[in-house]
Specification:
By secondary structure, the protein is mainly alpha-helical. Among the domains are: about 1-45; about 70-165, Type II secretion system (T2SS), domain F (Receptor-associated Protein, Up-down Bundle); about 260-375, Up-down Bundle (Receptor-associated Protein). It is about 70% helix and about 5% strand. The protein has 17 helices and 3 strands. The chain has helices at about 25-35, 70-85, 90-100, 105-120, 125-130, 135-150, 150-195, 200-210, 215-230, 230-250, 250-265, 265-290, 295-300, 305-320, 325-335, 340-350, 355-410; strands at about 1-10, 15-20, 40-45. A 3-stranded antiparallel sheet has the order 2-1-3. α7 packs parallel to α17 (about 355-410) and α12 packs across α13 (about 295-300). It is extended. It starts with a strand and ends with a helix.
Length: about 400
Protein backbone atom coordinates (compact mmCIF):
# COMPACT_ATOMS: atom_id res chain seq x y z
CA UNK A 1 0.00 0.00 0.00
CA UNK A 2 1.13 3.54 -0.75
CA UNK A 3 1.33 6.40 1.73
CA UNK A 4 -0.76 9.49 1.01
CA UNK A 5 -0.32 12.94 2.51
CA UNK A 6 -3.65 14.71 2.96
CA UNK A 7 -5.06 18.09 3.90
CA UNK A 8 -8.66 18.29 5.03
CA UNK A 9 -11.00 20.75 6.70
CA UNK A 10 -13.38 20.21 9.57
CA UNK A 11 -16.93 21.54 9.53
CA UNK A 12 -15.68 24.56 11.49
CA UNK A 13 -12.98 25.31 8.90
CA UNK A 14 -9.99 23.98 10.86
CA UNK A 15 -7.23 22.55 8.63
CA UNK A 16 -5.92 19.07 9.39
CA UNK A 17 -2.82 17.44 7.88
CA UNK A 18 -1.57 13.90 8.09
CA UNK A 19 -0.59 10.72 6.29
CA UNK A 20 -2.52 7.52 5.73
CA UNK A 21 -1.60 4.30 3.98
CA UNK A 22 -4.09 3.02 1.43
CA UNK A 23 -4.23 1.16 -1.86
CA UNK A 24 -5.74 4.07 -3.77
CA UNK A 25 -6.37 7.78 -3.33
CA UNK A 26 -10.12 7.08 -3.37
CA UNK A 27 -9.73 5.03 -0.19
CA UNK A 28 -8.23 8.04 1.59
CA UNK A 29 -11.09 10.25 0.38
CA UNK A 30 -13.63 7.70 1.64
CA UNK A 31 -11.89 7.48 5.03
CA UNK A 32 -11.83 11.28 5.42
CA UNK A 33 -15.54 11.46 4.64
CA UNK A 34 -16.24 8.76 7.21
CA UNK A 35 -14.44 10.89 9.81
CA UNK A 36 -16.58 13.91 8.94
CA UNK A 37 -13.73 15.80 7.26
CA UNK A 38 -13.73 17.65 3.92
CA UNK A 39 -10.88 16.46 1.64
CA UNK A 40 -9.02 19.37 0.08
CA UNK A 41 -5.77 17.94 -1.21
CA UNK A 42 -4.33 14.44 -1.35
CA UNK A 43 -0.81 13.68 -2.59
CA UNK A 44 1.07 10.42 -2.82
CA UNK A 45 3.95 10.67 -0.36
CA UNK A 46 7.50 10.24 -1.62
CA UNK A 47 10.79 9.64 0.17
CA UNK A 48 10.92 13.34 0.99
CA UNK A 49 7.55 13.19 2.70
CA UNK A 50 5.55 14.92 -0.02
CA UNK A 51 4.50 13.92 -3.47
CA UNK A 52 3.22 15.31 -6.66
CA UNK A 53 -0.38 16.42 -6.74
CA UNK A 54 -3.03 14.16 -8.13
CA UNK A 55 -5.97 14.97 -10.32
CA UNK A 56 -9.29 16.02 -8.83
CA UNK A 57 -9.53 16.48 -5.10
CA UNK A 58 -5.85 15.82 -4.59
CA UNK A 59 -4.61 18.33 -7.10
CA UNK A 60 -2.87 21.13 -5.23
CA UNK A 61 -1.67 24.59 -5.95
CA UNK A 62 1.65 24.87 -7.67
CA UNK A 63 4.69 26.67 -6.41
CA UNK A 64 5.75 30.27 -6.69
CA UNK A 65 5.10 31.90 -10.06
CA UNK A 66 5.19 35.38 -11.42
CA UNK A 67 1.66 35.17 -12.80
CA UNK A 68 -1.44 33.12 -12.13
CA UNK A 69 -1.70 30.51 -14.86
CA UNK A 70 -4.91 28.92 -16.06
CA UNK A 71 -3.77 25.64 -14.48
CA UNK A 72 -3.76 27.41 -11.12
CA UNK A 73 -7.23 28.83 -11.78
CA UNK A 74 -8.51 25.34 -12.61
CA UNK A 75 -7.08 23.93 -9.38
CA UNK A 76 -8.56 26.74 -7.26
CA UNK A 77 -11.91 26.30 -9.01
CA UNK A 78 -12.05 22.60 -8.20
CA UNK A 79 -11.02 23.08 -4.58
CA UNK A 80 -13.47 25.95 -4.05
CA UNK A 81 -16.27 23.82 -5.52
CA UNK A 82 -15.37 20.98 -3.12
CA UNK A 83 -15.51 23.26 -0.08
CA UNK A 84 -18.80 24.90 -1.08
CA UNK A 85 -20.42 21.53 -1.76
CA UNK A 86 -19.36 20.48 1.73
CA UNK A 87 -21.41 23.36 3.17
CA UNK A 88 -18.71 25.91 4.01
CA UNK A 89 -19.66 29.57 3.52
CA UNK A 90 -17.80 31.37 0.72
CA UNK A 91 -15.71 33.49 3.12
CA UNK A 92 -14.66 30.43 5.15
CA UNK A 93 -13.84 28.55 1.95
CA UNK A 94 -11.56 31.39 0.84
CA UNK A 95 -9.86 31.42 4.25
CA UNK A 96 -9.22 27.68 3.93
CA UNK A 97 -7.75 28.02 0.43
CA UNK A 98 -5.55 30.94 1.50
CA UNK A 99 -4.26 28.92 4.45
CA UNK A 100 -3.21 25.94 2.33
CA UNK A 101 -1.86 27.99 -0.61
CA UNK A 102 1.86 28.60 -0.83
CA UNK A 103 3.24 32.12 -0.85
CA UNK A 104 2.94 33.66 -4.29
CA UNK A 105 0.48 35.05 -6.84
CA UNK A 106 -2.20 32.41 -6.16
CA UNK A 107 -2.44 33.30 -2.47
CA UNK A 108 -2.41 37.01 -3.32
CA UNK A 109 -5.23 36.49 -5.82
CA UNK A 110 -7.33 34.58 -3.29
CA UNK A 111 -6.70 37.26 -0.66
CA UNK A 112 -7.84 40.03 -3.01
CA UNK A 113 -10.98 38.10 -3.92
CA UNK A 114 -11.84 37.51 -0.26
CA UNK A 115 -11.32 41.16 0.64
CA UNK A 116 -13.61 42.35 -2.16
CA UNK A 117 -16.30 39.79 -1.32
CA UNK A 118 -16.14 40.88 2.33
CA UNK A 119 -16.51 44.47 1.11
CA UNK A 120 -19.88 43.66 -0.45
CA UNK A 121 -18.92 42.78 -4.02
CA UNK A 122 -20.28 39.67 -5.67
CA UNK A 123 -17.80 36.94 -6.57
CA UNK A 124 -18.26 37.70 -10.28
CA UNK A 125 -17.52 41.40 -9.69
CA UNK A 126 -14.45 40.55 -7.62
CA UNK A 127 -13.14 38.24 -10.34
CA UNK A 128 -13.87 40.77 -13.08
CA UNK A 129 -11.62 43.30 -11.32
CA UNK A 130 -8.61 40.92 -11.42
CA UNK A 131 -7.66 41.72 -15.01
CA UNK A 132 -7.03 38.72 -17.26
CA UNK A 133 -6.86 36.11 -14.49
CA UNK A 134 -10.47 35.08 -15.22
CA UNK A 135 -11.90 34.88 -18.74
CA UNK A 136 -15.25 36.45 -19.76
CA UNK A 137 -16.62 32.91 -20.04
CA UNK A 138 -15.60 32.15 -16.45
CA UNK A 139 -17.06 35.38 -15.07
CA UNK A 140 -20.35 34.95 -16.97
CA UNK A 141 -20.82 31.46 -15.55
CA UNK A 142 -20.04 32.63 -12.01
CA UNK A 143 -22.56 35.46 -12.40
CA UNK A 144 -25.19 32.97 -13.59
CA UNK A 145 -24.39 30.65 -10.68
CA UNK A 146 -24.74 33.43 -8.12
CA UNK A 147 -28.05 34.54 -9.65
CA UNK A 148 -29.40 30.97 -9.54
CA UNK A 149 -28.04 30.12 -6.08
CA UNK A 150 -25.99 27.21 -7.44
CA UNK A 151 -22.44 28.54 -7.18
CA UNK A 152 -20.99 25.20 -6.05
CA UNK A 153 -22.53 23.41 -9.04
CA UNK A 154 -21.27 26.07 -11.45
CA UNK A 155 -17.74 25.90 -10.03
CA UNK A 156 -17.76 22.12 -10.40
CA UNK A 157 -18.82 22.39 -14.04
CA UNK A 158 -16.22 25.07 -14.65
CA UNK A 159 -13.50 22.85 -13.21
CA UNK A 160 -14.63 19.97 -15.44
CA UNK A 161 -14.79 22.27 -18.48
CA UNK A 162 -11.26 23.57 -17.88
CA UNK A 163 -9.89 20.05 -17.40
CA UNK A 164 -11.42 18.85 -20.67
CA UNK A 165 -10.16 21.89 -22.56
CA UNK A 166 -6.71 21.32 -21.11
CA UNK A 167 -6.82 17.64 -22.07
CA UNK A 168 -7.64 18.53 -25.69
CA UNK A 169 -4.86 21.11 -25.81
CA UNK A 170 -2.38 18.65 -24.31
CA UNK A 171 -3.38 16.00 -26.85
CA UNK A 172 -2.66 18.39 -29.73
CA UNK A 173 0.62 19.56 -28.19
CA UNK A 174 1.82 16.02 -27.47
CA UNK A 175 1.06 14.94 -31.02
CA UNK A 176 3.24 17.74 -32.41
CA UNK A 177 6.29 16.99 -30.24
CA UNK A 178 7.73 14.21 -32.43
CA UNK A 179 7.46 16.14 -35.74
CA UNK A 180 9.04 19.17 -34.04
CA UNK A 181 11.95 17.04 -32.81
CA UNK A 182 12.31 15.48 -36.26
CA UNK A 183 12.43 18.89 -37.96
CA UNK A 184 14.94 20.14 -35.38
CA UNK A 185 17.24 17.15 -35.87
CA UNK A 186 16.97 17.52 -39.65
CA UNK A 187 17.87 21.20 -39.52
CA UNK A 188 20.78 20.57 -37.15
CA UNK A 189 22.13 17.79 -39.39
CA UNK A 190 22.07 20.02 -42.46
CA UNK A 191 23.75 22.88 -40.57
CA UNK A 192 26.55 20.58 -39.35
CA UNK A 193 27.13 19.25 -42.87
CA UNK A 194 27.21 22.69 -44.48
CA UNK A 195 29.11 24.57 -41.77
CA UNK A 196 31.68 21.96 -40.66
CA UNK A 197 31.92 19.03 -43.10
CA UNK A 198 31.74 20.70 -46.52
CA UNK A 199 34.45 23.34 -45.75
CA UNK A 200 36.94 20.49 -45.09
CA UNK A 201 36.88 19.67 -48.81
CA UNK A 202 36.95 23.24 -50.09
CA UNK A 203 40.76 23.61 -50.07
CA UNK A 204 41.11 20.29 -51.91
CA UNK A 205 38.81 21.48 -54.67
CA UNK A 206 40.61 24.84 -54.96
CA UNK A 207 44.02 23.13 -55.30
CA UNK A 208 42.69 20.89 -58.06
CA UNK A 209 42.00 23.96 -60.21
CA UNK A 210 39.11 22.35 -62.04
CA UNK A 211 35.63 23.75 -62.48
CA UNK A 212 33.32 22.06 -60.03
CA UNK A 213 29.86 20.69 -60.85
CA UNK A 214 27.02 23.15 -60.33
CA UNK A 215 25.57 21.15 -57.44
CA UNK A 216 28.92 21.23 -55.62
CA UNK A 217 29.25 24.98 -56.17
CA UNK A 218 25.80 25.54 -54.68
CA UNK A 219 26.61 23.40 -51.62
CA UNK A 220 29.96 25.17 -51.05
CA UNK A 221 28.31 28.58 -51.43
CA UNK A 222 25.67 27.57 -48.89
CA UNK A 223 28.41 26.45 -46.49
CA UNK A 224 30.29 29.76 -46.91
CA UNK A 225 27.09 31.70 -46.32
CA UNK A 226 26.36 29.73 -43.16
CA UNK A 227 29.93 30.10 -41.85
CA UNK A 228 30.47 33.78 -42.59
CA UNK A 229 27.00 35.27 -42.37
CA UNK A 230 25.22 33.13 -39.78
CA UNK A 231 24.47 36.27 -37.78
CA UNK A 232 22.74 37.86 -40.77
CA UNK A 233 20.65 34.71 -41.25
CA UNK A 234 19.60 34.80 -37.59
CA UNK A 235 18.72 38.48 -37.83
CA UNK A 236 16.73 37.80 -40.99
CA UNK A 237 14.83 34.96 -39.31
CA UNK A 238 14.11 37.16 -36.30
CA UNK A 239 12.90 39.95 -38.58
CA UNK A 240 10.55 37.55 -40.38
CA UNK A 241 9.13 36.29 -37.07
CA UNK A 242 8.61 39.84 -35.79
CA UNK A 243 6.95 40.84 -39.06
CA UNK A 244 4.65 37.82 -38.89
CA UNK A 245 3.76 38.64 -35.29
CA UNK A 246 3.00 42.23 -36.26
CA UNK A 247 0.87 41.10 -39.19
CA UNK A 248 -1.18 38.82 -36.92
CA UNK A 249 -1.84 41.71 -34.53
CA UNK A 250 -3.53 43.74 -37.28
CA UNK A 251 -7.20 42.59 -37.34
CA UNK A 252 -7.63 42.80 -41.13
CA UNK A 253 -4.45 40.86 -41.85
CA UNK A 254 -5.17 38.32 -39.11
CA UNK A 255 -8.59 37.79 -40.70
CA UNK A 256 -7.04 37.12 -44.13
CA UNK A 257 -4.44 34.80 -42.59
CA UNK A 258 -7.08 32.78 -40.75
CA UNK A 259 -9.17 32.55 -43.92
CA UNK A 260 -6.16 31.22 -45.83
CA UNK A 261 -5.54 28.61 -43.12
CA UNK A 262 -9.14 27.38 -43.40
CA UNK A 263 -8.70 26.87 -47.15
CA UNK A 264 -5.68 24.59 -46.74
CA UNK A 265 -6.53 20.99 -47.79
CA UNK A 266 -5.70 19.15 -44.55
CA UNK A 267 -4.91 21.82 -41.97
CA UNK A 268 -8.14 23.70 -42.72
CA UNK A 269 -10.27 20.66 -41.88
CA UNK A 270 -8.36 20.13 -38.63
CA UNK A 271 -8.76 23.78 -37.60
CA UNK A 272 -12.50 23.68 -38.31
CA UNK A 273 -12.95 20.55 -36.19
CA UNK A 274 -10.83 21.96 -33.36
CA UNK A 275 -12.82 25.19 -33.27
CA UNK A 276 -16.11 23.28 -33.51
CA UNK A 277 -15.18 21.21 -30.47
CA UNK A 278 -14.27 24.36 -28.54
CA UNK A 279 -17.44 26.20 -29.60
CA UNK A 280 -19.73 23.27 -28.75
CA UNK A 281 -18.24 22.61 -25.33
CA UNK A 282 -18.23 26.28 -24.35
CA UNK A 283 -21.76 26.91 -25.61
CA UNK A 284 -23.08 23.78 -23.90
CA UNK A 285 -21.51 24.81 -20.60
CA UNK A 286 -22.92 28.34 -20.80
CA UNK A 287 -26.44 27.24 -21.74
CA UNK A 288 -26.52 24.62 -18.97
CA UNK A 289 -25.80 27.38 -16.49
CA UNK A 290 -28.53 29.75 -17.56
CA UNK A 291 -26.64 32.12 -19.87
CA UNK A 292 -28.92 33.28 -22.74
CA UNK A 293 -27.97 32.02 -26.20
CA UNK A 294 -27.19 35.45 -27.67
CA UNK A 295 -25.02 36.37 -24.70
CA UNK A 296 -23.29 33.00 -24.93
CA UNK A 297 -22.44 33.54 -28.61
CA UNK A 298 -20.95 36.95 -27.78
CA UNK A 299 -18.73 35.32 -25.15
CA UNK A 300 -17.70 32.46 -27.43
CA UNK A 301 -16.39 34.89 -30.05
CA UNK A 302 -13.49 35.67 -27.72
CA UNK A 303 -12.69 32.00 -27.09
CA UNK A 304 -12.28 30.96 -30.75
CA UNK A 305 -8.79 31.22 -32.17
CA UNK A 306 -9.81 31.57 -35.82
CA UNK A 307 -11.15 35.07 -36.45
CA UNK A 308 -13.05 34.10 -39.62
CA UNK A 309 -15.12 31.54 -37.72
CA UNK A 310 -15.50 33.92 -34.78
CA UNK A 311 -16.81 36.74 -36.98
CA UNK A 312 -19.22 34.32 -38.66
CA UNK A 313 -21.01 34.05 -35.31
CA UNK A 314 -22.16 37.65 -35.80
CA UNK A 315 -24.28 36.51 -38.74
CA UNK A 316 -25.66 33.66 -36.65
CA UNK A 317 -26.54 36.11 -33.85
CA UNK A 318 -28.33 38.40 -36.34
CA UNK A 319 -30.48 35.48 -37.53
CA UNK A 320 -31.28 34.53 -33.94
CA UNK A 321 -32.49 38.07 -33.23
CA UNK A 322 -34.90 37.70 -36.15
CA UNK A 323 -36.37 34.57 -34.61
CA UNK A 324 -34.54 31.94 -36.66
CA UNK A 325 -32.69 28.92 -35.33
CA UNK A 326 -28.94 28.56 -34.96
CA UNK A 327 -28.22 25.53 -37.16
CA UNK A 328 -29.26 26.96 -40.55
CA UNK A 329 -27.18 30.17 -40.21
CA UNK A 330 -24.18 28.07 -39.15
CA UNK A 331 -24.62 25.92 -42.25
CA UNK A 332 -24.93 28.96 -44.53
CA UNK A 333 -21.52 30.27 -43.45
CA UNK A 334 -19.90 27.20 -45.01
CA UNK A 335 -17.25 27.21 -42.29
CA UNK A 336 -18.54 24.74 -39.72
CA UNK A 337 -18.56 20.93 -40.19
CA UNK A 338 -21.87 19.81 -41.68
CA UNK A 339 -22.27 16.82 -39.39
CA UNK A 340 -21.91 19.04 -36.32
CA UNK A 341 -24.47 21.50 -37.68
CA UNK A 342 -26.94 18.68 -38.36
CA UNK A 343 -26.52 17.43 -34.78
CA UNK A 344 -27.18 20.95 -33.51
CA UNK A 345 -30.31 21.13 -35.67
CA UNK A 346 -31.59 17.90 -34.14
CA UNK A 347 -30.91 19.34 -30.69
CA UNK A 348 -32.93 22.46 -31.52
CA UNK A 349 -35.85 20.44 -32.88
CA UNK A 350 -35.98 18.13 -29.85
CA UNK A 351 -35.40 20.85 -27.26
CA UNK A 352 -32.15 19.25 -26.09
CA UNK A 353 -29.65 21.71 -27.51
CA UNK A 354 -27.36 21.69 -24.45
CA UNK A 355 -27.04 17.89 -24.43
CA UNK A 356 -26.52 17.73 -28.20
CA UNK A 357 -23.80 20.39 -28.04
CA UNK A 358 -22.05 18.28 -25.41
CA UNK A 359 -22.21 15.27 -27.74
CA UNK A 360 -20.84 17.39 -30.60
CA UNK A 361 -17.90 18.41 -28.40
CA UNK A 362 -17.16 14.80 -27.44
CA UNK A 363 -17.46 13.68 -31.08
CA UNK A 364 -15.09 16.32 -32.38
CA UNK A 365 -12.59 15.80 -29.60
CA UNK A 366 -12.22 12.27 -30.96
CA UNK A 367 -12.25 13.58 -34.55
CA UNK A 368 -9.44 16.03 -33.79
CA UNK A 369 -7.27 13.31 -32.25
CA UNK A 370 -7.87 10.91 -35.15
CA UNK A 371 -7.23 13.66 -37.72
CA UNK A 372 -3.95 14.57 -36.03
CA UNK A 373 -2.91 10.91 -36.05
CA UNK A 374 -3.68 10.66 -39.77
CA UNK A 375 -1.74 13.84 -40.52
CA UNK A 376 1.23 12.63 -38.51
CA UNK A 377 1.12 9.27 -40.27
CA UNK A 378 1.45 11.22 -43.52
CA UNK A 379 3.88 13.85 -42.25
CA UNK A 380 6.47 11.60 -40.61
CA UNK A 381 7.53 9.67 -43.75
CA UNK A 382 7.51 12.93 -45.75
CA UNK A 383 9.86 14.56 -43.24
CA UNK A 384 12.14 11.53 -43.09
CA UNK A 385 12.24 11.25 -46.88
CA UNK A 386 12.91 14.99 -47.28
CA UNK A 387 15.74 14.83 -44.74
CA UNK A 388 17.24 11.84 -46.53
CA UNK A 389 17.05 13.56 -49.92
CA UNK A 390 18.70 16.77 -48.64
CA UNK A 391 21.54 14.98 -46.85
CA UNK A 392 22.03 12.58 -49.75
CA UNK A 393 22.14 15.53 -52.15
CA UNK A 394 24.85 17.26 -50.11
CA UNK A 395 26.93 14.09 -49.85
CA UNK A 396 26.52 13.23 -53.54
CA UNK A 397 27.58 16.73 -54.60
CA UNK A 398 30.82 16.30 -52.63
CA UNK A 399 31.43 12.78 -53.96
CA UNK A 400 30.92 13.90 -57.56
CA UNK A 401 33.45 16.70 -57.06
CA UNK A 402 35.97 14.29 -55.46
CA UNK A 403 35.60 11.88 -58.39
CA UNK A 404 36.17 14.69 -60.87
CA UNK A 405 39.33 15.73 -58.99
CA UNK A 406 40.61 12.15 -59.07
CA UNK A 407 40.00 11.94 -62.83
CA UNK A 408 42.06 15.11 -63.26
CA UNK A 409 44.91 13.58 -61.23
CA UNK A 410 45.08 10.57 -63.55
Amino acid sequence: MAAFHYKAATSSGEILEGERRAEHEANVVEWLHSQGYIPIRIEEATAGGRGRSRQGVGKGLLGRKKTVRQNDVAVVTGELATLLRAGLPLDRAFSTLIEIAEEGPVRELLTRLQEQVRGGASLAEAMESQGEAFSPLYISMIRAGEAGGALDVILGRLAEFMERSKALKNAVTSALIYPAILVGVAGLSVIILLAFVVPQFQQLFEDAGKALPLATQIVIAAGDLLQNYWWALLLGLLAVLLLLRYQLQVPERRYRWDGWLLRLPLAGDLIAKLEMARLSRTLSTLLRNGVPLLSALAIIKDTLGNRVMAEALNEVADELRQGHGMADPLLETGLFPKMAVQMIKVGEETGQLEDMLGQVAETYDVEVESTIKRLLALLEPVLILSLGVIIAGIIMSILVAILSVNELAF
